[in-house]
Amino acid sequence: MGSVVERRRGEALEAAILEAAWDELTERGYANLTVDSVARRAGTSKPVLYRRWADKRKLVEAAVVRRNVIQQIPPADTGSLRGDLLATLTELGEKRGPFLAQLSLLLAGYFAEADSSYADLREQILAGRRSGRDEIMDRAVARGEIDPARLTPRIASLPFDLLRSEAMMTNRPVPPEVIEEIVDTIFLPLVSRR
Prior knowledge:
single chain; 194 residues; mainly alpha; 11 helices; disordered N terminus
C-alpha cells in the first residue's frame, strides 16, 4: 500500500503557498519568480494560486506581509525612551538588518513594476495595527520624556529609518556604537524636552 497524501486546504494550504513564494523570492528574486515555480514548490497547481491572488505581484505582496508578520519584533519596554530605543534598534539591527538589505535587492523589480515603495508595503504589513515605533513614542510622551510638539511622524520614524539605511548600506548587522549614535547624537536631541 502506498502512502496517503493528505490534501491541504484553507489556512494550511495558504501558508504552504506563501512559504513557497517566499522561498522562491529569496532564491530567485522577483524578476525570476513565476506563479508556476511557486505552485510546483508548494505541491499544488497554478489555478489554486490564481483563485487566491490575481497575479504574481499580489502573491509576492502576500508572502512578504506574512513573513513580516511572523517575524515581528515587539518593542522593548525598559522604562525609558533611550532604553527602549537602544534595545529595540539593537534587536532589529541584529535580526532584521540583513533581511532588509536582502529584501531591497529581491524586490527591486517588484517596486518598479508595481509603481510602489517600501512605505506602501509597510502599510500593508501593518494593516491598521499600531507599529512598535508608535508604542515606544507614546510611552515616552506619557512619561514626559518627549515634547509632543516636536514629535512629527518623520522625526518619530527617524531612528528606524537610519537603522534601515545603515543595514542596507552595509549588508551587516548594525553595530552597537552606530545604534547609540543614532539614539544619543541624532534622535534624542531632536525630541527631548529642553
